[in-house]
């Protein structure tokens, strides 16, 4: 392991990158072709690097574009009948855990960069205006900065039960606050809404998260949701579902809430027959699930 010399003159260890296999597979059975946008490819501007990737689009032509948030999206028409869409990538992800700075401060709104202001506003699934009174009552007395955002994460992590199937893609942060159960999407939505209610820029993130240095959950692998808060002069990763600094995150998309980064946005009825997601350390000779 190599290192670099920091400002204090101390040698700071640098973890080697993690080679990961990430990807997904969607199976459909449709009565008619359905136009769709698929968003499962890692963002090209992240700290990770895509080494190799491949697509299976059931013979349908596809093309990519960048949306207004810089996410990489793929347009296609899902064919009628039985079909399978698949994506597989080898990715080098940072070997170190999510960076942290417990001294990072919340900026006054007047000092926030202009491009962060969008993420202080309510959105469809993160109606922060509805949660303002609750947010200030619970967290207004916490030091404005890292401590406040981490306290929000602690509160959501401890107060919301993880329960598969307890919510829908239309469930808002307000509903999660009231029913106190949901999946990682809902944990992130609630934390984002509470941060925004306190004038902390917060954006929803979805990606691949391998089970490295943690006990794997009993449930099948899925896409993972977390969020980023703007403190000091940069965006920082927070994860209210897992509530720990993790290794190997690969960002797919960022947006106001889950609507902006849906894995499939279909323009017609296109229910999934089966979905498989994988994110794991690469093994020589391994074949995607």
Key features of this structure:
289 residues; alpha+beta; Immunoglobulin-like; C8orf32 fold; 2 domains; 4-stranded antiparallel beta sheet; 4 helices
Description of the structure:
With 289 residues, the protein is of the alpha+beta class. It has 2 domains: 98 residues, Immunoglobulin-like (Sandwich); 147 residues, C8orf32 fold, CATH 3.10.620.30. The chain is built from 4 helices and 16 strands. It has a 4-stranded antiparallel sheet with strand order 5-8-3-16, with no helix packed on it. A hairpin with a 5-residue loop joins strand 1 and strand 2. It is globular, with a radius of gyration of 20 Å. The N terminus is likely disordered.
Question: Summary?
Answer:
The chain is α+β, with helices and mostly antiparallel strands and 289 residues long.
Determine Rg (CA atoms, Å). Answer: 20 Å
Distance between the termini: 32 Å
CATH fold category name of the largest domain:
C8orf32 fold
Compressed to H and E, one letter per element, the order equals EEEEEEEEHHEHEHEEEEEE
Oligomer: single chain
State which percent range the strand residues make up.
25-35%
Range of helix content: 10-25%
Question: What would the principal axes of the Cα set say about the shape?
Answer: globular
**What's the CATH class label of the largest domain?**
Alpha Beta
């Amino acid at each position: 392991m190599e290192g670099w010399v920091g400002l204090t003159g101390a040698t700071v260890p640098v973890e080697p990158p993690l080679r990961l296999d990430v990807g997904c597979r969607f199976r459909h059975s449709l009565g008619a072709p359905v136009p769709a946008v698929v968003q499962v490819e890692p963002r090209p501007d992240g700290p990770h690097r895509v080494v190799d990737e491949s697509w299976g689009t059931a013979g349908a032509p596809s093309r990519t574009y960048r949306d207004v948030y810089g996410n990489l999206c793929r347009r296609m028409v899902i064919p009628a009948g039985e079909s399978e869409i698949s994506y597989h990538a080898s990715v080098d992800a940072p070997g170190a855990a999510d960076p942290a700075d417990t001294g990072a401060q919340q900026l006054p709104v007047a000092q926030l960069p202009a491009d962060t202001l969008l993420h202080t506003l309510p959105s469809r699934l993160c109606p922060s205006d509805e949660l303002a009174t609750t947010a200030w009552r619970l967290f207004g007395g916490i030091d404005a900065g890292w401590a406040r955002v981490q306290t929000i994460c602690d509160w959501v992590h401890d107060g919301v039960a993880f329960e598969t199937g307890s919510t829908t893609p239309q469930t808002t942060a307000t509903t999660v606050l009231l029913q106190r159960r949901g999946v990682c999407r809902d944990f992130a939505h609630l934390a984002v809404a509470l941060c925004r209610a306190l004038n902390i820029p917060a954006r929803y993130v979805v990606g691949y998260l391998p089970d490295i240095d943690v006990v794997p959950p009993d449930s099948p692998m899925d896409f993972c949701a977390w969020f980023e808060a703007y403190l000091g002069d940069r965006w920082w990763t927070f994860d209210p579902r897992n509530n720990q600094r993790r290794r190997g995150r690969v960002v797919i998309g960022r947006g106001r809430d889950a609507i902006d980064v849906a894995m499939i946005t279909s323009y017609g009825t296109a229910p999934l027959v089966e979905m498989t997601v994988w994110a794991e350390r690469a093994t020589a000779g391994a074949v995607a699930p």
